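Hi R.,

Here's the chain you asked about this morning:
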Amino acid sequence: MAAGADEESTSESAEVANQIAENATEPPAPEPPSPAPKPAGGRGAALVTAGIILARLAGIVRQRVQAHYFGTGPLADVLTAAFRLGNITQNLLGEGTLSATFIPVYAKLRAEGKAAEARRFALAALGLLAAVSGLASIVGAVFAPWLSFIIAAGFDGERRDLTVSMARVLFPMTGLLVLSAWALGVLNAHRRFFLPYAAPVVWSLAQIAGMVAFGTFLHTTGADLAHVLAYSALLGAGLQLFILLPATRRLVGGLTPTLNTKDPNVRQASARLPGAIAGRGIIQISGLIDTQLVSFLAPGDTAAFGYAQTIYLLPMALLGTGEAAAALPELARDTAEQDAEKRNIAMADRIGKSIARVATLSIPAGLSLTLMGRELVAVIVQTGKFDQSATERVAILLAAYGFSLFANAVGRILITASYALGDTKTPVRYAIYRVVVSTVIALLLMKPLGVLGVVIGAVVAGWVETITLGIRLHKQIGGLGLSNVRWVSPLAAGLLACGAGILVRLIFPEQWAGMRIVTFPLGPSLSLVAFGAVFLALATAFGMLNVRALLRRRR
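And here is the predicted structure, written out as C-alpha cells:
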C-alpha cells in the first residue's frame, strides 16, 4: 500500500525515515555484528506499511473472533473496560512517551556519529523503563478495584468484579508491551521498521488461539472464556517481546540494563519525561472519562464503543501512527542543524510532505467510514452473536469517527514534530484543551444521543487540538509546508468511490444481501470491492498513486 501527494510520494516516507542512518558516520569503535543489509528507498516504506497492515489485520481478526463469542453483551462490556484499564501502563510509558523522550535523543546521537554513547543510553533507558513499568504494573494490579470503579462506575457488582479480576492479569501484560515499545524505538532508529510493527501479530494470534481452542473445542463460555482471553493476551505479550529482543540485542550490543541516572543523555530524556507522561496521562484520562460516561448508558454500549474504535484505529494506525513513526527519526536529525533558519525550513517542508501523504488516503478513508460504515462493520465483525442490529449500532458511531480521521492523523504528525524539537509541554497544554472540549460536549449530548454524543465530543475535540497545535507550530518554525498538500483530488476520489459503493448497495437485490461468501456477507463485500476499485482507478488517474514509479523504485 502506498500513497502520496504527487507522483513520487509513493516511496517518499521511506526515504525521509531512512536517511538518518545513511547520513550518520559511525566512529571507529568496534561495532556489534552487522545485521542484514538495510533496505533501500521505497522498499522501506513498503516494509513500514506491510508491518502495520499485518498487525492491524490480525487485530481485526482477533476482534471478529471476540465478536463471535461475546457479541455486544455484558461480557463484551467487561472486556472493553478491562483492556482499557490494563492498558494504563502501556499508554503512560509506551510508544507515545518514548517517541517524546527516548527516540529523539537516541536517533540524534546516532546521526552525530556517537554510536557507543547511543548504546549506553539505550541500555540505561531499558533499565529505568523496566523498573518503572514493573512497579506501575504491580500498583495497578493492587489498586484494580478502585481503578475499575473509576473507569466503569456504571457497571453493576458482577460486571465490576469480573473487570477487576481480568485487569489484574492485564496490568502485567502491558508491562511487557512497554518493554516491546523500547525495542520498537531502537529498531526504528536503526531503520528496522517491519519487525517491530509486525510483531504485535503474535499478540493477536495468541488471543485468537485461546478463544478458539477453549471456546470451540473445549466448549468454555461466559466469564471463564473471558479469563482465557486475558491470560492469552498476557502470553501473547511475552511472545511479542521475545521476538523483538534478539534483533534489538544485535543493534545495541547486549541486553543488560543499567540504572545510570548520571548519564547526561538520560538526564536530557528524563527532563522531557514529565511532560511526555503528562501528555499521555491526559490522553489516558480522556479515554477513561469516555469509557466512564458510556458505562452509565445502555448495556452493550461500552462494547459497541470499543468495536467502533477498533475499526477506526485501523486506518488511523496506517496513516497517522505509521507516518509519524517514520518521520520522527528524520525530524530529530533536522534539529542537529545549527542554523535555525535552515532547520525550520527543512522541518516545515518535511511536515508538509507528511501531511500530504496522510491527506491522500485519510480523506477518502474518512469518507468511507462515514458513508459506508455499515458495510465495513458487517464485513469485519458481523458473525455469531454479533448480528445485524449490533452492526447498525456500531456503524453510526463509525460514521461520526470518520469526520476526525484526517484531523487526528495530522495531529500525530504535529505532536511528533514538537517532540523532535524537544518540546513536550505544548502537546500537553493542547491535550488538556482536547479533554475539556470532549467532556463538555459529551455531557451535553449524552442524554439526547447516548453513546453517539460521547463520540461526537471526541471528534470535535480532535479538530480543536490539531488546529491549535498547528497554529502554535506554524509560529514556532515559520510554516507547516501546506503548499505540498493537494486537497481536491483526495476529496473527489473519495466521494466518487463512496458513490460507487452506495450504488451497489442500492441496486443489489435485497434477497441476496444476506448471502455469505465463506463467513462474509455478499452485499456489503461487493460494495467495498466497488469502492476500492473505483478509488484505485481514480487515485491513479489523478496522480495520487503512481504504480509505475513505485515498481521502478522497488526494482
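One quick note: The CA atoms of residues 279 and 428 lie 4 Å apart.

Cheers,
M.
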